[in-house]
Amino acid sequence: MSTSSPAGKFGAKGLFGSYGAGIGAPLEIAVDVPGVQCFQLHVPEEKDMTPEWAKRVKELIEPRGIKIARFVIGYSGADGDRYDTPRKVLETVGFGVPNHELRQKRLALTLRYLEYGHEQLGVNDFNAHLGHIDPSNAYYEPTVKTVQQVCDTVSQWGGHYDVETGPEPFELLRDFIKAVNRPDIFRVNLDLANIILYHGVWEPVCFLRNLIDAGIEIGGVHLKEARPTTIHPSLDQWNGEEVHPGTGYVNFPLFLKTLFESGYRKELVVEREVLGESGLVKVRHMAETLTWVYSLCRDIEEAFAN
User: Fold this and answer.
1) Based on C-alpha coordinates, what's the Rg of the chain?
2) For residue 190, what are the β-bridge partners?
3) pLDDT by residue, tens only, the chain of 306 residues
4) DSSP string covering 214-251, please?
5) Is residue 234 left, alpha or beta, with left meaning phi > 0 and alpha meaning psi from -120 to 50?
6) Of 47, 91, 201, 291, most Cβ neighbours within 10 A?
7) 164 near 129, Cβ under 8 Å?
8) How far is CA 243 from CA 111, 231, 282, in A?
9) Which residues pair with 46 in a beta bridge?
C-alpha cells in the first residue's frame, strides 16, 4: 500500500498505533486525531490474528479514509522481546538472537504476520528491530538468511521489510544491509529517539546523512524525541529519556529539510512511548506533535517550491 506523494510534497502523515495489545496510540481513540492520514500499526497478539480483528480495524479506519501504511512486528510472551536495557535488546529482540530454535519460531510467526497483514488489511510494508547483528557471532549468517527469506516473501507483492534503527552502530547496520543484498526491498525505518537513547553521541541528522551518503534507502520515519544524559552510553541503562518533540536533542526542522532534500516522499509517523501515560494523554500529545509536523512540512515544501 503506497503512502508516497507527488514530487513536491512529503507523503502521508500519521501515528504509530495499536489495537487491543501492543505499543502505540490506542487506535480507537487515535483515528479521530485531526490530520491523521495513515497508521503504522503494531501487529496483533498471535491469538488475535483473525478475520474479526482485521474487520474491527477496517471499521475504524475505512470510514475516515485512513490507510495502514505498515505493520510493525514484535514478539511477546515469556521468550519475547525485552526492552529493559540496551543489553536486553541485544539478547532478546528480533531475529538476531543466539537461539536458533527461537529464531526459526519467530520466522514462522513473521511469515504468518506478512500473509495476514497483506491478505486481511492490504498491508505491503513491514518493519521490525533486528536485535544483535555482529559478523563475529555464529548466528550472524543465520540472521542474514532469515531476513532474506522475509524479504523474498514480501517482494512477491511489491512490498518491503525495513529494519528499525536500534542498538546497531551505523557501520554494522550498513554492512548487514549489504550482506542481506535485497536492494529496494530491505530498507531502514529511521527512529529519531532510538538513535539518541542507544548511542548518545549520535545526533539523528548525522545518522540520516550517513544513510544518504551510503545510498541506503529510507523506508519510513518515526518522529520521536529524546534527551541524552551522557556521551558515554552503557548497555546497562538507557542513555536518557524520551521527551515531547521540540524539547530534546532532535533538530526537527533540519532533519525534515535534509530528509526532503534527499528525495524522501513517503510517510511521516509520530511515535510516542513515554511510560505511565494513559491512552488519552498519549494521543493528546501525539496530536500536538502531528500539528507541529504539518507546519514544519508546509514551510519546507513551500521553500523548495519557490
Assistant:
1) 18
2) 221
3) 545 555 789 999 999 999 998 789 999 999 999 999 999 999 999 999 999 999 999 999 999 999 999 999 999 999 999 999 999 999 999 999 999 999 999 999 999 999 999 999 999 999 999 999 999 999 999 999 999 999 999 999 999 999 999 999 899 999 999 999 999 999 999 999 999 998 876 678 999 999 999 999 999 999 999 998 877 778 888 988 999 999 999 999 999 999 999 999 999 999 999 888 999 999 999 999 999 999 999 999 999 997
4) TTPPEEEEEE-EEE-S-SS-BTTB-SSEEE-TTSSS--
5) beta
6) 91
7) yes
8) 34, 18, 12
9) none
Q: Which three cell numbers stand for residue 158?
A: 511489491
Q: For the purposes of burial, counting CB atoms within 10 Å of the CB of 6, is it exposed (0-12), middle (13-18) or buried (19 or more)? A: exposed
Per the DSSP assignment, residues forming a β-bridge with 189 are 164, 220
Q: What is the pTM of this model?
A: 0.94
Please check whether residue 239 is in contact with residue 200, taking contact to mean a CB–CB distance below 8 angstroms: yes
Find out whether 230 and 239 touch, Cβ atoms under 8 Å: yes
Which 3 state secondary structure label does DSSP give 45?
A: coil
Query: For the chain, percent helix, then strand, then coil, each to nearest 5?
Result: 45, 20, 40
Q: What is d(CA 304, CA 49) in angstroms, rounded to the nearest whole number?
A: 44
DSSP letter string over 75-136? Answer: --STTS---SSHHHHHHHSSSB-S-HHHHHHHHHHHHHHHHHHHHHH---EEEE--B---TT
Query: Cell for 244?
Result: 515531547
Domains and CATH numbers, the chain: 13-305 (3.20.20.150)
